[in-house]
Amino acid sequence: MLITCPYCGPRDLSEYTYQGDANRTRPDPASADQAAWNDYVYDRINTAGEHREFWQHSGGCRAHLLVARNTLTHAINFVGFAREHGLPKHQERRKGGEA
Description:
The chain is mainly beta and 99 residues long. It is built from 1 helix and 6 strands, in the order βββαβββ. The chain has one helix spanning 34-42; strands at residues 2-5, 9-12, 17-21, 50-56, 64-70, 76-81.
């Protein structure tokens, strides 16, 4: 399977590291809601078809990417930088350099 990095171009899957499901919303890190964290960590939807995933180009430019992939055919329909495609507000870097 080839993933086309926006910086480096088409590269083999072996250069990438899977970072997780991009369809799920992570609870606020300050949240003490045990049920929300259990759902986030353990509940998975086994999608057949279009699925959004986070990948890192760990063997190349190290960019974090959002990949839309068909889980049945492994055809990649979209690749873009993760920072540009809808991370939840509490996961985005705040303006002014605050974490």
